[in-house]
């Protein structure tokens, strides 16, 4: 079981968190202006990388906040966590923290 | 039979404490400190099981957790029966009752042994080849037969009466394994004050030291050093010692699962103690000191009872004072065998011969064996064994230039084998560390770590007592130092620390890394030879070679095809030899073939330990409403809705569910009923942007909803499908009282939080779950107003002042209330929201006030019937995550003029306009007494060619007391266009004709809503 570093509360066990899918996919400000293909991309298509992945987590059984994290999908370890709204940090060109 | 094979003295058993036990119904004696295995061996018993597939007689192979053969069933009573326990790990206690497994009628004569004769027909993969025909016979015939023949122990069928607990523990350094390396590591780590946990799967801490009789450490006998070291560790407050505790799983971020057997070894367990305890240890640093396992040799007939691992023979003698036989032959590929030979000879056992696979035998241990007069035979192999239920002779033959000469039978009652040592890298591999093939060690050793751990001692190929102690000490120091310099698991990496180290003065015989991997040579016809690689799954050399001939090259494929290494011992004794055989068969070096993955658990672990306290009433939390106890007192039956207990119906004496529900329905339609709706999810949405937020989250228009009004809201997912619904009250310009479905409340709140926090953080809105804060009492029926009017203060209940779909704040029975004028029954109705603590009092007051009108409490079943009569949907029943608002007749609730809301863009997708979408309709059976089954399929023409095209399915179906006939809701392809048609619901043995109708069966104009 991973330990996840909530940017608000600190290190907590994985069971307190809920996964929220890929991060940095902003909802279009005017969905009606999008073609079907563009809307489908927003709804369904994700990068699914092997390696570093920016993703959303929610400290569900804690502060309740959504935040973002970069996790290495190969090692499963987190590289960095950061508050929602902040840009993806440059950190994490190497594998995850153990 | 009284311990004929027991030595007159020595060993760690307590010879003053005689223990009586039973095996297969026969009573034997042993001593405290014995395992079941050592006590049976002391009594001359080696036949302890039958093999899985061929039912061949089997005896002990090892003295530890790697034992593949000696699996027994230990029963205290019928509920406390544990199958598949390794006799080598079962501690003896007075009255222990063990039985052998997989034999019928008895261990000595087993009818299943005829499988051994049929073995030419049971090759590798025979499951896949043999049971293909006729179709369907696998399930009906072969599988049940095979399951009855094969298999291991039998699980008890009674509930487990014992208690299991779970602990969370945190430490600086966890040391796994309390042999010399682990003890030294724990000593070093705890020196600095670090919090240390030291665990070991055995009853006694000490590992290999427990079987040392001649070794010395710091000038003392090993046993003496061991007891002093344990005393030192015990005296340190920062050290926790856990014997009988197996580290069975290594999980991310140094979470290690330990299974502690608390009372298994006691004759009369204290009922206040748990049977087992699961430790979830989060360690900053881990030292793995798991030791090494001795490898068997793979030669013909190597599964005869009496054929054992050499070091096991030494352990039984030195630790338990039990001789494995009187005349012993040793077959060895390295020096391990000689250590055993010398100890056995010193212990009074006749060592008839040592067959050494090596052509040249040099070194100290063999020289001492020769000097002791032992018949040492270099370049010699065992080509077979004689005997049936016990070995009676070993067949020895010389190997010269790769050719095996004629064999000589040497009478013996035990044959001890040693193929060298396999470092126990299981935990390291579970931690996802990379294993590296080490040519010098002839073994896979820990390479790059994935977790904050280090291996010490034999599990990383370090042999020799002094070297192991020094390695353990250095690793313990380093672990403690690293634990100090990094903050917490999951945080920044630590600088590599330098250990000062400590020199140990130790002397003892130790094994070299010499060994052999694969099958030893013989000159016999391979077709008639069984040389076992995996004892527990009955896999022979022949099976593995067959697999390679059939094209399997990857060890992962060979493993699955032959099942080698897939038994409960996870191939502790078999994996390396299987690799060697594949390597030879396909002509590739061992490291090229790869290694199978090690997975938890290290040894079989009980279900009880995982369940812990989470069973029975504690399995899940139970949520009860404020009115629950009243309902229970008034005879309600309850149903589970998510975690809630909801009153299902209120039967009177002699009523079944049907009669009770019919009565409850008639009461609501004709007079008045009351219903506990407290389980509805409730969310308070507050803030200057509350209306804007509602507007974006729900399909409906909210901006113009006046305070004091209610609206039925529909929530979509972004993909346009219905997610939830509920009635929403606007309490003020900036405040909404939102209700959700009972099961959907957490999901809806999370959905709202997601959008509020991540998409629209600029909106000034707060969301608060108020589900538990409000008790909700629905009062429904033409007399509802008359019942409530005398109880309510400050609210005019007249239709003019308080129209349908309104909310008013005031008091009821003196308690503040949010009173909703709303109906989920189609009758005049109110929902009384009061603070939950007043729920029961207000409920009782309403019940009393309603008595003149015959007010009737009703449950969820009646609620369902009444709403179905009105065609009101239930999200999750009429919808299944693929229904749009229009599909279920809620198109009217979608704010067409709104620019955007969650899911709006998806509603424009072309697929949502197809005429054959499944749409909500009503179904009326031609026979009004027939009630359809929910979930039943709807078709147009049952005589159509198979597969008959399915049009949809029945979503809700009830007998309506009001309409005096059955009614049903269904989703049917192009359903609205089919209104007026007759369709068919095919059921086993009959075809039910149904008329497709509008989904509103009762009062379609809604005239009764006003009472």
Automatic annotation (TrEMBL), chain A:
Domain of life of the native organism: Bacteria
Record GO terms (molecular function): sarcosine oxidase activity
GO BP, sorted A to Z: tetrahydrofolate metabolic process
Family matches, as NCBIfam families: soxD
Name assigned to this protein: Sarcosine oxidase subunit delta
UniProtKB/TrEMBL annotation, chain B:
Limits of the GCVT N-terminal domain: 627-898
Domain SoxA A3: from-to ranges: 530-612
Pfam families: Fer2_4, GCV_T, GCV_T_C, Pyr_redox_2, SO_alpha_A3
One MF annotation (Gene Ontology) recorded for this entry: sarcosine oxidase activity
Occurrences of domain FAD/NAD(P)-binding (ranges): 172-431
Superkingdom classification of source: Bacteria
Record domain Aminomethyltransferase C-terminal: where: 918-1003
This protein's UniProt keywords: Oxidoreductase
GO biological process: tetrahydrofolate metabolic process
PANTHER family named among the record's database cross-references: AMINOMETHYLTRANSFERASE (PTHR43757), AMINOMETHYLTRANSFERASE, MITOCHONDRIAL (PTHR43757:SF2)
Family: Belongs to the GcvT family.
Protein name per its UniProtKB record: Sarcosine oxidase subunit alpha
């Amino acid at each position: 079981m991973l330990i996840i570093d909530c940017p608000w509360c600190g290190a907590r066990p994985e069971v307190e968190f809920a996964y929220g899918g890929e991060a940095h996919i902003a909802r279009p400000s005017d969905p009606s202006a999008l073609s079907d293909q563009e809307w489908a991309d927003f709804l369904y298509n994700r990068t699914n990388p092997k390696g570093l992945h920016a993703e959303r987590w929610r400290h569900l059984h804690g502060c309740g906040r959504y935040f973002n994290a970069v996790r290495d999908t190969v090692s499963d370890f987190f590289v960095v966590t950061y508050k929602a709204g902040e840009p993806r940090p440059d950190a994490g060109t190497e594998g995850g923290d153990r | 039979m009284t311990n004929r094979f027991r030595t007159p003295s020595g060993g760690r058993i307590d010879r003053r404490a005689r223990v009586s036990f039973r095996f297969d119904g026969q009573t034997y004696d042993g001593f405290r400190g014995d395992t079941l295995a050592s006590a049976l061996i002391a009594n001359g018993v080696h036949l302890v099981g039958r093999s899985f597939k061929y039912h061949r007689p089997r005896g002990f192979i090892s003295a530890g957790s790697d034992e593949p053969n000696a699996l027994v069933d230990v029963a205290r009573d019928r509920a406390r029966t544990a199958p598949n326990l390794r006799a080598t790990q079962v501690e003896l206690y007075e009255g222990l009752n063990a039985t052998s497994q997989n034999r019928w009628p008895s261990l000595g004569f087993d009818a299943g042994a005829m499988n051994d004769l049929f073995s030419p027909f049971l090759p590798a993969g025979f499951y896949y080849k043999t049971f293909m025909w006729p179709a369907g016979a696998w399930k009906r015939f072969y599988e049940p037969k095979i399951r009855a023949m094969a298999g291991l122990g039998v699980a008890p069928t009674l509930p487990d009466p014992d208690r299991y607990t779970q602990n969370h523990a945190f430490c600086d350094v966890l040391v796994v394994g309390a042999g010399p390396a682990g003890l030294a590591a724990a000593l070093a780590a705890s020196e600095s004050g670090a919090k240390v946990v030291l665990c070991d799967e055995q009853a006694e801490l000490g590992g290999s030291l427990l079987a040392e009789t001649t070794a010395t450490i710091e000038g003392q006998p090993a046993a003496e050093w061991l007891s002093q070291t344990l005393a030192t560790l015990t005296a340190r407050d920062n050290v926790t010692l856990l014997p009988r505790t197996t580290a069975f799983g290594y999980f991310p971020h140094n979470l290690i699962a330990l299974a502690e057997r608390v009372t298994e070894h006691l004759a009369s367990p204290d009922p206040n103690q748990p049977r087992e305890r699961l430790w979830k240890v989060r360690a900053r640093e881990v030292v793995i000191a798991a030791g090494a396992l001795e490898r068997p040799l793979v030669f013909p007939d190597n599964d005869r009872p009496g054929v054992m691992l050499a070091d096991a023979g030494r352990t039984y003698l030195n630790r338990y004072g039990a001789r494995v036989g009187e005349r012993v032959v040793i077959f060895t590929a390295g020096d391990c065998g000689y250590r055993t030979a010398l100890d056995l000879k010193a212990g009074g056992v006749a060592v008839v011969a040592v067959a050494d696979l090596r052509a040249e035998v040099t070194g100290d241990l063999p020289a001492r064996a020769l000097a002791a007069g032992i018949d040492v035979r270099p370049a010699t192999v065992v080509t077979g064994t004689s005997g049936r239920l016990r070995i009676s002779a070993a067949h020895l033959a010389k190997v010269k230039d790769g050719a095996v000469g004629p064999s000589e039978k040497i009478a013996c009652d035990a044959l001890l084998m040693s193929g060298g040592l396999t470092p126990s890298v299981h935990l390291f591999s579970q931690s996802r560390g990379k294993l590296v093939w080490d040519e010098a060690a002839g073994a896979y050793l820990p390479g790059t770590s994935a977790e904050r751990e280090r291996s010490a001692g034999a599990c990383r190929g370090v042999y020799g007592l002094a070297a192991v102690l020094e390695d353990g000490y250095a690793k313990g120091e380093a672990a403690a130092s690293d634990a100090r310099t990094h903050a917490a698991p999951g945080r920044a990496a630590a600088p590599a620390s330098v250990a000062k180290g400590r020199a140990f003065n130790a002397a003892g015989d130790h094994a070299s890394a010499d060994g052999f991997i694969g099958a030893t040579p013989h000159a016999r016809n391979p077709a008639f030879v069984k040389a076992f690689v995996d004892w527990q799954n009955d896999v022979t050399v022949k099976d593995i070679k067959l697999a390679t001939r059939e094209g399997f090259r990857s060890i992962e494929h060979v493993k699955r095809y032959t099942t080698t290494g897939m038994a409960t011992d996870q191939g502790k004794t078999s994996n390396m030899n299987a690799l060697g055989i594949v390597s030879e068969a396909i002509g590739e070096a061992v490291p090229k073939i790869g290694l199978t993955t090690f997975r938890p658990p290290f040894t079989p672990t009980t279900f009880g330990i995982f369940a812990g306290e989470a069973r029975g009433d504690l399995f899940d939390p139970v949520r009860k409403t404020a009115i629950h106890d009243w309902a229970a007192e008034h005879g309600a039956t309850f149903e589970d809705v998510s975690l809630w207990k909801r009153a299902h119906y209120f039967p009177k004496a002699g009523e079944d569910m049907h009669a009770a529900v019919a009565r409850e329905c008639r009461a609501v339609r004709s007079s008045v009923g009351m219903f506990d709706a407290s389980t509805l999810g409730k969310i308070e949405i507050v803030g200057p942007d509350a209306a804007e937020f509602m507007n974006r989250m729900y399909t409906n228009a909210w901006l113009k909803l006046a305070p004091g009004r209610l609206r039925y809201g529909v929530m979509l997912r972004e993909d346009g499908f219905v997610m939830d619904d509920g009635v929403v009250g606007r309490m003020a310009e900036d405040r909404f009282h939102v209700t959700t479905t009972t099961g959907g409340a957490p999901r809806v709140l999370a959905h709202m939080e997601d959008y509020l926090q991540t998409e629209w953080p600029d909106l000034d809105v707060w969301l608060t779950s108020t589900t538990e804060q409000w008790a909700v009492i629905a009062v429904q029926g033409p007399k509802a107003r008359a019942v409530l009017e005398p109880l309510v203060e400050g609210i005019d209940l007249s239709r003019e002042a308080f129209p349908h779909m309104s909310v008013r704040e005031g008091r009821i029975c003196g308690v503040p209330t949010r009173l909703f004028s709303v109906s989920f029954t189609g009758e005049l109705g109110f929902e009384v929201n009061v603070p939950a603590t007043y729920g029961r009092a207000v409920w009782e007051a309403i019940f009393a006030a309603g008595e003149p009108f015959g007010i009737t409490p009703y449950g969820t079943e009646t609620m369902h019937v009444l709403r179905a009569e009105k065609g009101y949907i239930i999200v999750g029943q009429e919808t299944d995550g693929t229904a749009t608002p229009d599909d279920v007749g809620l198109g009217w609730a979608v704010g067409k003029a709104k620019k955007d809301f969650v899911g709006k863009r998806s509603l424009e997708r072309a697929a949502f306009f197809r005429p054959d979408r499944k749409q909500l309709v009503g179904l009326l059976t031609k026979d009004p007494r027939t009630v359809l089954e929910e979930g039943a399929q709807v078709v147009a023409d049952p005589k159509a060619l198979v597969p008959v095209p399915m049009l949809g399915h029945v979503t809700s179906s009830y007998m309506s007391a009001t309409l005096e006939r059955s009614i049903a809701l269904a989703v049917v392809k192009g359903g609205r266009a089919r209104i007026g048609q007759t369709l068919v619901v095919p059921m086993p043995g009959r075809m039910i004709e149904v008329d497709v109708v509008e989904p509103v069966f009762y009062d379609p104009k809604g005239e009764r809503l006003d009472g």
